[in-house]
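Proteins fold reproducibly. Take a sample protein:
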Amino acid sequence: MKFHSYGFARWQSLLRVGLCFLVMLTTLAGCKHLDDDRIPPAPVRLEFRTVADWNLYGVPGALGYRRYIKSERIPANFPYVALSQTGFGGVLIVGDILGAPRAYDLACPVECKADVRIVIDEEASKAYCPKCKSVYDVFTNYGQPLSGPALEYGYGLRKYYVGAGSQGEYMVVTR
């Protein structure tokens, strides 16, 4: 009787380990890795010193957006300073569906070229690459690919920090 109960307890233990292993294997097999680090690292710093600066040059609210490319002076009236940097392909700041600001590099992660930039399709409220035709969700899902080669390869847009500055700036965008 003692041997039988020991064998049953051991069988239960092995069954639990086997089930845990099976669940872990299934979970790992179902996970897709999103690579949002394909764009070469480049300095990013945009400063909005006051609320008035943000209201004038920032994003107006939910589903709003603005592109910043220092080398091309976009937007033309933005007060770029010596420390201003706009990443690899430029910076896209959007207001998500609740109006919170989010920032991404403008370079398409599939093409990985500074001059191949994503564009906002205002009608569909999505961003897309005019070259590879990949579509990205920048307003609700943090730059995740929705279709095209970016979805196939798992390439997301590079994200940047947007928030209050550490030296009294109302809002900054940094890496």
Notes: The two ends are 67 Å apart (CA to CA).
